[in-house]
Amino acid sequence: MRMGTVIAAVSTAMRTAAIGVVRVSGDDAVKVCEKVFFPLRKRAIAETPRMAVLGDVHDDEGKVIDSAIATYFKAPASYTGEDMVEISCHGGVAVISETLAALFAAGAEQAEPGEFTRRAFLNGKLDLTQAEAVADLLSARTKQAAENAAFQLGGSLGRELKEVRHGIVDIAAHFYAFVDFPDEGVEDFCPEEKLPYLMELRDRLEKLKTGFRRAEVYHDGVECAIIGRPNVGKSSLLNAILGYDRSIVDNEAGTTRDTVEASAVVGGVLLNIIDTAGLRDDAGRVESIGVERSRTAAQKAELVLFVVDGSEPPTDEEIELAREFGENAICVVNKADLEQFDRNEVTDRFHRVCVISAKTGEGMDELGNAVSEAVFAGETAETEHIMTNPRQRAAVIRAAEALDEAIAAIHAGMTADALCVDLESAAEELGAVTGENVSDDVISEIFSHFCVGK
């Protein structure tokens, strides 16, 4: 790791915009920037920490590239914990590229993916849960995912895990002090007396585990299939959810002959939606391939929206399909803007029924509520700390299992040294989450998934 070396990268998107920000960090960040950025009022960057300074950016031949603003963040009060300068240019791709090239000519090196955040972690500005929350915040696709990542960025998850880890370490430390310093008056170590506190620590990890399902939904979304017989409005429903025409809509049956995929947020849930071909027995050769794919998609999906046409009486085929898919699907009765028929023979098969009009938008809010209830059915988030990161979740599960083993060892009357093996294992797993003990390889893997400039 090249700590202290001056690094530079574009921190905003590399496309035309109002403003483009080039970030510079390292021991000599100011010296490098002073070769490139020249304040209009001749006041050096180093004299004005945390103040926006107007000036010109020059290339290595002294030609003016742009009129820009530089802001100096003096170590350790910066994102990385090092001296850092951010140059805000006009957001043309050529301007940003030339500014970066000028910094490289002045002695800066290209930042690696996630290197700014990695330096923030190594300099103690962030723990590892906060650093990973930065990546989650950038990749968030729903409001809930962004809110959860922002909450973790505040450090609450790291503090909770550190408290649990330190409690575990304190128990093990008491045992080792009792064994290693028998003449120092250390209080006797009795495993049974530690049991209530150990169970309390285990329960805190169990509460963290209760949010795992919600975390997966926030992070990855839910696979959702829209199914039903032809011409009931499946494609119209998809278009209504998306807010634009993604699927072909026509009065002719069978216009959707293959699966159509798109993603959208419905009821606060990110749905990875598959609009399928209409399910019917008399489909032609090509359409029948789409029908078979529809059944496969519905069987694999975590959520099914079973669409029926409320303006027509149910068919025997539709009733049969309701028997097949009714248990875990939401029945969406479409065309509420038209006169409705009695659909009880179909809708009675479903736990959740929504009446909507994909044409007018009527009932779409109720559909959103039904989706949220179906996805999170029976689950209550018992903790405010929701881990969206698979690495964190896996480590917490292993730590909880190690504490279960420790508790079982006490109940079985095993020796204290056997108990401490499990305690050390749990502490190690939690330390890998917060970064208190984690290998360089793991750190490199984590930050390799960040974008350059963050």
Kindly describe this structure:
It is flat and about 80 Å long. The chain has 454 residues and is α/β, with parallel strands linked by helices. It contains 16 helices and 13 strands. A hairpin with a 2-residue loop joins strand 9 and strand 10 (269-275).
Strand count: 13
Please list the strands of the largest sheet in the order they lie side by side: 3-4-5-6-2-1-7
Q: Please give the count of helices.
A: 16
Helix content: 40-55%
**Which structural class should the secondary elements be placed in?**
alpha/beta
Estimate the strand proportion: 15-25%
Order of helices and strands: EEHEEEEHEHHHHHHEHEEHEHEHEHHHH
- How would a textbook summarize the main sheet? 7 strands, mixed
Average pLDDT rating? 84
Structural Rg: 29 Å
In terms of per-residue confidence, which ranges show pLDDT below 50 for 5 or more consecutive residues? 247-258, 280-290
Overall 3D shape: flat
Terminal residue distance: 16 Å
List key phrases describing it.
flat, 454 residues, 6-stranded mixed β-sheet, alpha/beta, 7-stranded mixed β-sheet, single chain
Outline the fold blueprint.
Layout: E1 7-10, E2 19-25, H1 29-34, E3 37-39, E4 52-58, E5 64-73, E6 84-90, H2 93-105, E7 109-110, H3 115-122, H4 128-139, H5 143-153, H6 156-180, H7 191-209, H8 212-220, E8 222-227, H9 234-242, E9 260-266, E10 269-275, H10 285-300, E11 303-309, H11 316-325, E12 329-334, H12 344-347, E13 352-355, H13 364-375, H14 390-411, H15 416-434, H16 440-447
Parallel strand pairs: 1-7, 8-10, 8-11, 11-12, 12-13
Antiparallel strand pairs: 1-2, 2-6, 3-4, 4-5, 5-6, 9-10
